[in-house]
Amino acid sequence: MSDWLPRLSRKNRSASKAKDRLKLVLIHDRTDISPSALEDMKDEIIKVISNHISIDRDQVKIQMVHDGREQRLIADIPLQPLR
Amino acid sequence: MAAKIITITSGKGGVGKTTATANLSVALADLGQKVVCIDSDIGLRNLDVVLGLENRIVYDLVDVIEGRCRIRQAMIKDKRFDELFLIPAAQTRDKSAVSPSDMIALCEQIENEFDWILIDSPAGIERGFKNAIAPANSVIVITNPDVSAVRDADRIIGIVEAEEKGPARLIINRINPELIRRGDMLDAEDILDLLAINLVGIVPEDETVIMSTNVGKPVATEEKSKAGQAFRNIARRLMGDEVPLMDLDLKEGIFQKISKIFNTGGK
Questions:
Q1: Scanning every residue of chain B, which has its alpha carbon at the shortest distance from the alpha carbon of A25?
Q2: Which candidate in A26, A27, A71, A72 is best for mutational testing of the B interface (most B CBs within 10 A)?
Q3: What integer pLDDT is reported at residue B266 of this predicted model?
Q4: Position with higher pLDDT, A4 vs B8
Q5: What's the rounded Cα separation, in Å, for the pair B152 and A26?
Q6: What does the pLDDT look like over B143-153, one tens digit per residue?
Q7: What CATH number belongs to B4-262?
Q8: Which residues of A touch B (CB under 8 A)?
Q9: Inter-chain residue contact A22 with B150, CB threshold 8 Å
Q10: CB contacts < 8 Å between A and B, how many?
Q11: More confident residue, B113 or B254
């Protein structure tokens, strides 16, 4: 009886934390890009694109995702509506 | 037909490479297969003690490579199975004594006489590991359900792919069903999700592994051992049989059953 309460909140147990941490670690291990290098790259990409088109800088999302053992860099760059 | 050459490796040390090599060798021999296992961990030999053959060593891997003996002289016949042999690692010699091409040449000498050659790799990603995978047709990566072992397994899987020995297959060793049930251990599904490779088996944490290693008698020979059963299942899968994964569920009490019903959407 004593141990079924924690089971109801399995999401907060240590295994799911381990999985979340590993997800991030593996992405960076596989690509050799640190989170801060990714941030720098993001800033540069925003700068280059802004030279050509007006974008909503705060909403830009650039992230590494994994699909099987393949890594993918996904950029989501919302444009600023024309006034 | 030439032997299937499988290298068992892990990245991280202490996850059970040698135990797995010994037990899969024994389990394959028990299925009537002709097996040679090679300890390629030069300087840190251990497959001999796990198999209980440490007192029979005269020549070793480096003696064969350096031409001090014929390969047959370095092959130690197992106590239990007539068609199981061990080529032990050298214990004292310099690691640079062996190269990847030496390992390939060594396996070529015996591959037509056996069904399986299992190579126990050293930990790490250095020369010893490169030697161990050089002759392999396929690679099995072994891990434990903890963050550091899984992380290192991922590195190894990537290197195995880069060396064109992939795709590697996975064994998850030392699973503790009670911790998984509490949500305090990564389960097989979590690990496969992270590593994205195929599974060949799961092995529960089992004190009979320590007991059988103490006496040099691999647990795969123990009829009642759960870990032994797990290794026998993996051997059958290597032979091409479809064997369902072991059910590691503990005997559940009524309260666990009830809470499981509540918890079905939780994962």
A1: B151
A2: A26
A3: 40
A4: B8
A5: 9
A6: 999 999 999 99
A7: 3.40.50.300
A8: 1, 3-4, 6-11, 13-16, 18-19, 21-23, 25-26, 29-30, 66, 68-69
A9: yes
A10: 73
A11: B113
Q: What are the residues whose beta carbons fall under 8 Å from the beta carbon of B40, sequence distance 6 or more? A: B61, B89, B98, B103, B119, B120, B121, B122, B128, B131, B132
Closest residue by Cα to residue B33 from B217, B232, B229:
B232
In the predicted model, what is the mean pLDDT of residues B68-80?
A: 97
- B257 — contact with chain A (CB < 8 Å)? no
Picking from B12, B143, B151, B176 by the largest number of A CB atoms within 10 A of its own CB, the best residue to mutate is B151
d(CA B23, CA B19): 6
Please judge whether B196 and A66 are an interchain contact, meaning their C-beta atoms are less than 8 angstroms apart. yes
Report the residue from B157, B190, B263 with minimal CB separation from A15.
Answer: B190
CA distance readout (Å), B26 to A2, A27, B46, B186: 42, 38, 16, 29
Question: Which of chain A's residues have a Cβ under 8 Å away from the Cβ of B146?
Answer: 18
Query: Is the model's pLDDT at B253 over the cut of 80?
Result: no
Residue B51 has pLDDT above 50, yes or no: yes
> What confidence tens digit (pLDDT) does each residue in B191-233 have?
999 999 999 999 999 999 999 999 999 999 999 999 999 999 9
Which pLDDT value is given to residue B267?
39
The per-residue DSSP string of B26-85 comes to HHHHHTT--EEEEE--TTS--HHHHHT-GGG-SS-HHHHHTTSS-HHHH-EEPSS-TTEE
Inter-chain contact A4–B258, Cβ cutoff 8 Å?
yes
User: B1 falls in which pLDDT band (50, 70, 90)?
Assistant: confident
Is residue B264 predicted with pLDDT exceeding 60? no
Q: Where are the domains of chain A?
A: 34-83
Q: Average pLDDT, stretch A10-27?
A: 89
Give the distance from residue A36's alpha carbon to the nearest chain B alpha carbon, in angstroms: 20
Residues 6+ apart with CB under 8 A from A47: none
